[in-house]
Amino acid sequence: MAWRETRDPYRIWVSEIMLQQTRVETVAPYFERFIDRFPDVRSLAGARLDGVMKAWEGLGYYSRARNLHRAARVVVERHGGKVPGTVEELLTLPGVGRSTAGAIAAIAFGADEPVLDANARRVVARLFSVGGDPNIASVQKILWEGSARLVARGKGRETALAVMDLGAIVCLPRAPRCGECPVRPFCATFRDGTQEEIPPRASRKPVPHHDVVAAMFRRPDGSLLLARRPPEGLLGGLWAFPSAKRAAGESLEAAVRRAVREKLPVPAAIQRKVGAVSHAYSHYRITLHGYLCEATGGACPEGVGVGWIRAGRGGRYAIPRADRKLLELIQKEGTS
Ligand code: SF4
User: Fold this and answer.
1) CB-count exposure of residue 214 (10 Å: 0-12, 13-18, 19+)
2) What is the best residue among 181, 191, 192, 198 to mutate for testing ligand 1's pocket, by most ligand atoms within 8 Å of CB?
3) C-alpha triplet 58, 254, 224: angle, nearest 5°
4) Distance (Å, rounded) from C-alpha 241 to C-alpha 74?
5) SS3 label, residue 46
6) How many Cα atoms occupy the beta-carbon half-sphere of 163 within 13 Å?
7) Per annotation, catalytic residue among 5, 16, 232, 328
8) Residues 239 and 317 sit within 8 Å (Cβ to Cβ)
9) Residues lining ligand 1, judged by CB closer than 6 Å?
10) Which residues pair with 280 in a beta bridge?
11) Which residues contact 11 (CB under 8 A, 6 or more apart)?
């Protein structure tokens, strides 16, 4: 893990943000590419948001990229380009919560700060036998106190890395490897035989499914129209086909007409269905139905927030996975 071999606060910060909701194996290549492209905080602050989103494409939870970009500008403007070293200052940066702030302060600056990422949370809960839902504030308070008790004075970096890595490698969510665990003699749940019950597993809710329609406009040269999504939300700032979620009782075609009406100022007619692709997000699944459309009142729109992607090219646009699948589907057809 390249971010474990550095003391550079910027790199540690980037890695902690990437690791917030993503597995180590997925993060590794993204981290390398991101650091190649934006090697320091000034290069990130000076970059266009589109370039940052493109470097983040496929990693998901895009608000992380938007916040990282904003935070880099804050670091340049308010801190002279140096990542601040205290939890209080770090907490003022967009996208940095208490656990990330603690991790950066401890790992990059050696501060005696507790950490409580998902791995550390599990380790602390098991070591001190803290039952209850770790998302509840009162339980979190106990977990923070437990994590603080683990910090060896003057060894903030070593403690943070040890706790987080113990959770990632040994104290696994299912079947923790207690036989190999160096803190087994101090572990309350090992003593009680309750390590499989603590922390309690979140009950699995059924994953909702939505039908989403995409209006696809194609020029004679094969290039396809994409529109930039509003800056907020799950896919905020990405470039995607104009789309709409099908409402209850609405036909797919009616939803396409509504998508065009709401997203583009042009009258249009549906030509045909191109196909459908499936995609799973963290909390829901979608089927994205692509419809080829034709502008009926003259030229297709141009301008800010509208882009044309050339056939066969990824281009400079950061595109959501589902839209990229649809793009590949129509590009396979050629321009006929
Ligand atoms: Fe986790 Fe088992 Fe080690 Fe306790 S003894 S910290 S449950 S791996």
Assistant:
1) buried
2) 181
3) 40
4) 32
5) coil
6) 33
7) 16
8) yes
9) 123, 126-127, 170-171, 176-178, 181, 183-184, 187, 189-190, 195
10) 285
11) 2, 3, 35
Distance CA 160, CA 50 (A): 34
Rounded to the nearest angstrom, the distance between the alpha carbon of 180 and the centre of ligand 1 is 9
| Residue 191 CA: distances (Å) to CA of 57, 182, 294 | 45, 14, 68
pLDDT tens, residue by residue, 238-273: 999 999 999 999 999 999 999 988 888 788 899 999
Q: What's the CA-to-centroid distance between 185 and ligand 1, angstroms?
A: 9
pLDDT in tens, 81-131: 999 999 999 999 999 999 999 999 999 999 999 999 999 999 999 999 999
Residue/partner pairs of 300-305 with CB below 8 Å, 24 or more apart:
300/217, 300/219, 300/225, 300/264, 300/266, 301/225, 301/264, 301/265, 301/266, 305/227, 305/228
Active site residue 294: no
For the chain, how big is the Rg over CA atoms in Å? 24
- 24 C-alpha vs ligand 1 centroid, how far in Å? 21
In this structure, of 94-98, 211-215, 239-243, 294-298, the range with the lowest mean pLDDT score is 294-298
Residues in the chain: 336
Q: Helices (DSSP H) in the chain: which residue ranges?
A: 9-18, 24-37, 41-45, 49-56, 63-79, 87-90, 98-109, 118-127, 137-150, 156-169, 188-192, 252-263, 321-332
Ligand 1 mean position, distance from CA 38 (Å)? 38
**What is the distance in angstroms between the CA of the first residue and the CA of the last residue of the chain?**
47
Residue 98 identity (one-letter amino acid): R
Number of Cβ within 10 Å of residue 149's Cβ equals 11
CB 160 within 8 A of CB 113: yes
Task: With beta carbons less than 8 A apart as the criterion, state whether 114 and 102 touch.
Answer: yes
